[in-house]
Amino acid sequence: MGVSTSSPENGPEKNGIAVVTVDFPPVNALPVDGWFALADAVRTAGRDPRVRCVVLAAEGRGFNAGVDIKEIQAQGSGALVGANRGCFEAFAAVYECAVPVVAAVQGFCLGGGIGLVGNADVIVASEDATFGLPELDRGALGAATHLARLVPQHLMRALYYTSRTASAAELHAHGSVWRVVPREELGAAALELAREIAAKDGELLRLAKAAINGIDPVDVRRSYRFEQGFTYEANAVGVADRVRDTFGKEKDKEKEGA
After folding, report:
1. Which residues pair with 6 in a beta bridge?
2. How many Å apart are CA 93 and CA 240, to the nearest integer?
3. Which label site among 97, 105, 125, 189 has the fewest CB atoms less than 10 Å from its CB?
4. In whole angstroms, how far apart are CA 151 and each of 101, 136, 173, 175, 227?
5. Facing residues of 20 across strands?
6. How many CB atoms lie under 10 A from the CB of residue 43?
7. What's this model's pTM, rounded to 2 decimal places?
8. How far apart are the C-alpha atoms of 109 and 119, rounded to whole Å?
């Protein structure tokens, strides 16, 4: 359990690929420490001169379910601040990684997962992958910055306000998902793309990543930090706690009435 880094095949000195894997059962809802560990792992991989591409992957039935709501409910504002800072660092680490980052997404990609894949360079997804921001259902705000990198502006707003999800096929149609494959082929498909990228000159790849980031029309760090300010405000006035206190209870009521 946790965040691990591995080298497929013969190691980074042979193929230039580092795989950073997240594993926080049961749903990959990351605790505060998990977000910081992920940020450290991605930055460390990118700094390795032998690495020319990073694959961001996850174990389990879903790629990422966002922050650990139970941790925030139990620990209060301190955990909220920690989660916001941790997400900020993890998202930034993916975006600022010195080499291209390929996200391999299966199952659900929600909340903080959108921040990760929205800042990745390329996304490969399984056929069952779904993407969304259920933030309004969880007493939070944020990552619209990153969802806007995946879908057109008005669709982003509709998804955000309704907490609905979009499928991998829909994102592929919008051009934000590179390839959609059967779930059992996801790892191989991500590595296939990573190998093609890693075959390029490493120094030139790093220059290319810096150049592409430099021409982005939106400063993702500033934009996301602006969004986080409204999460703090929602928490300060009590609306966040009011919404979070209902988290999971709707399903419990449905079970009782069944």
Report:
1. 19
2. 27
3. 189
4. 19, 19, 10, 8, 18
5. 5, 56
6. 18
7. 0.92
8. 13
